[in-house]
Amino acid sequence: SHNDPANHSLSDVGLMYELNEEDQSQTVLKYNPGFTKRFISEADALNKFCIMVRKPGLEVVNYLKHADYSAPVNRYLLYGPQGCGKTMTMLYAISYCRKQGWLIFPAFNTWSWLKYKKEIVRSQWNKERVDHSEVASRWLENFRQINSHLLDKIYTTREYVWTKYEKSEAGISFASLVDQGIARVRIASDVIGCIIREVLQQDDSNFPRSLVAVDCVNSFFSITTLKIEPGIYVEPNELTMVYNFKKLLRNRWKNGAVVVGLNTSGIQNQTGRVENITSEHPHDILGPDGFDWLDPHIPIHVPLYTDIESISQLAYYQDRKWLVGRSISEAGEAEILQICGNSPNDISVYCGHL
Amino acid sequence: MPIIQKICFKPVLTGRIQKVCYSAVAKAGLLPKPFLEDSDSIQFLERMNRHPSFLADMLEQEWSDVWPMHRQFNPYLVPLPLRMGVTQKYCAPPDKFGNLELMKVQNFLHLTPPAVKKHCAALKKFCTPFPEELRSQQDFEREFPLQSHTVDYVVAGKTPRNPDARVVTKTIRLCNLPLDHHARLKLTRLAGEERFNRDTDILTLKVDRCPVRKQNNDFANYLLTALYFESWKTESWEKGGKTGYSDGYLWWEDSPSFQNVKNLSISWESPQVDTYREAVADLKSEPGKPGKMTEERNTAINNYKSSVLKLLNLPALE
């Protein structure tokens, strides 16, 4: 029973929640998984894929349980210091929703949509928009992976015409729509737009509930380093994917929930310099536009580990025989805690492999 | 310079001759005058002997009769031990007798407090009583919201006209004008940042472009009128723009958060909406320095969270 996030309560804080093989195959995405490379390699080494049950995660799940789904969607905003588990909290919420049979829209590390050299091309649908096909097709693969058991059961409501000769009939399943998008990279961005349109305009009572999980949501309200014409940077709103995802973040649709996370590391400006943001205040990081877009949301603070949690983390390492020798003595534990200062990321790095 | 050398190096003369020689030389500005108390008092007595009437005059008359108008300094009429001028080493400044510096500067000896009082008393019969309704500063502002400020220069020079006298400064507190949010924002934008003080809400128009004060005054009036009526117009290009809190004020009814709450279809009169509105205003009006987390900002976030939870009717984690 403890393997289902729905049954967790405050007394379970600090315990580890294990994702089994089946969960892993769906939750650990192929491209841009929320889990860091460090986390995945560590899980491989420990031979166990665990997420710690923490208070912010329980809080999100609590709200998801009690929300009124006939009303417009609620937005939950995770904020807190760097390396404290905002993304892991989001993954915890995702694993809850997946077990409840929700349709999930995962978007991790959205900075990568806006940064670096990408193939971008003017949209066929709307000349003002810019597609990045590669990112879009990768996102579709992620979408297919995480919702593999659901996509066959949902059907489109209208006909979509891609080109003169290609079109999708009304009433085909989402799975075939997504497959079409992955096969024809050119239309991948438009397929995403269609899926999002179906979600926003759903009126079928059998349509599953949707969870939109966007990490680094502040990237949608910042700047890009992409250029489609020399000298002019593309605005985030011009990108088809960003434009469509921002529609999902509004409270104009029902039967769903939105969990978004802020990201303060690596906020780059257009010259490539990383700006230091010391604040964790949502209004500072999102900016006025972003804050208004998400208002009213429920801010959920993801703090550093409490003492119990950090000791529990060390106990987990010791149980998996990862910490041995001097580090399992009382002095060794005290030293690790002293150096890492209850920061989850620091503990993981300090106890991690070389 | 034989005499000077003689005096300087051989001061063996008798007292009286020495005094005379010293003062004569000192007057010519050739030698520093040594500070000798008794020599000064002797000098003073000498002066008194030369003008025996002046102290007696002082004691008998009113000062405003002795010195009724502005006039040049006269050491024999002013019974004050004044000293002025460049100080030599180990010397006191030159005294008032024959002192050019004292005669050059303007004096206000005709404006002593009793003289001013006398003057006012003489003018009083021409004045009317002050209106009783105007008790406080607020009353003034209600009746006369527009203040005009000019400066008159009075100078004893070749011409009575001073070019700075043409400048007209008009100030008005904007809350005295009927303005809505848009008009107010537009007026402050049109007038410019430097003419509007946000802390006091005062708009200041300083006009000095015309050669005569009357023209400047007319222009200032025209400017204010034009600003007012122009700010009430809404041009077609303004419709898409955001007038959220770009002027530093949060107009909640215009803000996107108001629109978002409208979407929620909850009862509009409920107290949850009020608390939510206050919490949003607190969060956005940035208590404390942006970029840093402080206690105040943390409590603002927590208030916001609890108000939203009430608004959306969600239970807290038990």
UniProtKB/TrEMBL annotation, chain A:
Cellular component terms (Gene Ontology): mitochondrial small ribosomal subunit
Xref: Pfam families: DAP3
Subcellular location: Mitochondrion
Broad class of where this protein is predominantly found: mitochondrion
Transit peptide found in the keyword field: yes
One of the protein's GO biological processes: apoptotic process
Molecular function (Gene Ontology), one example: structural constituent of ribosome
InterPro entries the record matches: P-loop_NTPase, Ribosomal_mS29, Ribosomal_mS29_met
Keywords (A to Z) from UniProt: Mitochondrion, Ribonucleoprotein, Ribosomal protein, Transit peptide
Similarity-based family: Belongs to the mitochondrion-specific ribosomal protein mS29 family.
Alphabetized PANTHER family for the sequence: MITOCHONDRIAL 28S RIBOSOMAL PROTEIN S29, SMALL RIBOSOMAL SUBUNIT PROTEIN MS29
Protein's name according to its UniProt entry: Small ribosomal subunit protein mS29
Annotated source species: Ciona savignyi (Pacific transparent sea squirt)
TrEMBL record, chain B:
Coiled coil stretches, renumbered: none
GO molecular function, one term: structural constituent of ribosome
GO cellular component term, pick one: mitochondrial small ribosomal subunit
Small ribosomal subunit protein mS35 mitochondrial conserved domain sequence ranges: 162-233
GO biological process: mitochondrial translation
Highest taxon, organism lineage: Eukaryota
Protein name from the UniProt record: Small ribosomal subunit protein mS35 mitochondrial conserved domain-containing protein
Native organism: Ciona savignyi (Pacific transparent sea squirt)
